[in-house]
Design goal:
Layout: H1 2-7, E1 29-34, E2 38-42, E3 49-54, E4 70-73, E5 81-88, E6 100-108, H2 109-114, E7 123-127, E8 131-140, E9 153-160, E10 166-171, E11 186-189, H3 190-194, E12 201-208, E13 216-224, H4 225-228, E14 237-239, H5 243-248, E15 257-267, H6 271-276, E16 280-288, H7 312-324, E17 332-338, E18 340-342, E19 347-349, E20 352-353, E21 362-364, H8 365-379, E22 381-382, H9 389-400, E23 407-415, H10 422-432, E24 437-443, H11 450-456, E25 463-464, E26 467-468, E27 474-478, H12 489-501, H13 504-514
Parallel strand pairs: 16-17, 16-23, 23-24, 24-27
Antiparallel strand pairs: 1-4, 1-7, 2-3, 2-5, 5-6, 8-11, 8-15, 9-10, 9-12, 12-13, 14-15, 17-20, 17-21, 18-19, 18-22, 25-26
Helix pairs in contact: 7-12, 9-10
Pfam families: C2, Copine
Keywords: Calcium, Metal-binding, Repeat
GO molecular function, one term: metal ion binding
Amino acid sequence: MEGDVLDKLDDMSSMYDFDPITGNIPATKVEITVSLCVLYTQGVETKQWREFGRTEVIDNTLNPDFVRKYILDYFFEEKQNLRFDLYDVDSKSPDLSKHDFLGQVFCTLGEIVGSPASPTSTFSCSLTSNDSATMQFCANKLDKKDFFGKSDPFMVFYRSNEDGTFTICHKTEVVKNTLNPVWQPFTIPVRALCNGDYDRTIKVEVYDWDRDGSHDFIGDFTTSYRELARGQSQFNVYEVINTKKKMKKKKYVNSGTVTLLSFSVESEFTFLDYIKGGTQINFTVAIDFTASNGNPSQSTSLHYMNPYQLNAYAMALKAVGEIIQDYDSDKMFPALGFGAKLPPDGRVSHEFPLNGNLENPYCNGIEGILEAYHESLKTVQLYGPTNFAPVVNHVARYAAAVQDGSQYFVLLIITDGVISDMAQTKEAIVNAAKLPMSIIIVGVGQAEFDAMVELDGDDIRVSSRGKLAERDIVQFVPFRDYMDRTGNHVLSMARLAKDVLAEIPDQFISYMKTRGVKPNPAPPPYTPPGHTHHHTQI
């Protein structure tokens, strides 16, 4: 089953279709070993369950230890619901209704990758290889293809698929007007080159570039990752063969040679390597309690508590929080408010705990945050101004205390309006960019959010007092862009979460790389007493 899934990733067999942005490497893959029978995945839009694969059948045991694995595309920014159904198989029929249904379990892929191996976990997960290979080639005495000059050669690399087809995985640059080109070194993920099979055939085609796109075929040769890994040697000098030319000419030897000049491999750590090594994602939410939100008791207010539907604040919090919570083992989250007058003396605060407990602002899960938010609306008075810097600095203090890669902090700010302390917030963001933290801002209501776009820093990096932020750590989206006119809030919130969370893994990796922090080795999968695992983890 997993071979089929991998082979369908990107069957781009023509070099003309090759897109260097999307064609090189598919999504991060995680490999799951489960003690269950049938895996179903759920579509985000339809919510329908689709069968993904089945394990092999193990007869006559109450403790099956399945060998077959599932390989799925993993996306941090999506809530990927999974269902595992277990059957007692009575015959060889593929029809599940013919067998005894024993039970089922529901979870998310995030829960599996975010949980340490333990006696309570039925699942284990491993990552496919994330090594990257850097190599350089030159060629000698290639066939001359141009009438008025020498050739303009380039090479196209293909990985072989299990069905005998080939998928393009790299194309070199064109070296103009030479029969002895030296191409620039290039780096490619090992998985894109051979899918983790070091002996799998790699085909390389050599072409003469033509402006009109009708590139002339010079010849090809085959190799494998294992051969290339030998580095520069007599084994890595390849004859370029043009089969048609060879059949026509008796004295044909080759159409030139290609030589591997250098080869090296480097481990590229991914977001999941750190998560499996024990890094925790700490989630904090900060909610805007300024008066511009409107009186919470009136239906026009952005804080209005409709008994039949969540308001924009609650929807945004739930959409983002339900995904991030899978990466925090204790599910206890600090929840803050800003811009309100607090009882009993009416002082204005821009950094108050929603649960009213200064010593312990933590709420139990996303539901706990929502409960504390609802209670706060009954006790505080909406006021102002809209200051972000205090809550940014609040989380930054915690992040500054843990810079060893064991924890990463994500602050979600939900706000309705124009920021009042822009200079201080910019300074807070520039300082926070040096720390293991990211900031998500969701703008609710109909206000202009020009200042938020500036804080986002996608086009121009945020700066303060002449200092540029070391990393881009802010992602802003306006909530109104995700409101589904058909009323399908589940789908619209999934889209919102996807957009605001998509940058977190790269921001996370950029911090770890600049600090030279490597992931801890993942703990071995939990093995019940008396069980022996024979699983080969790639």
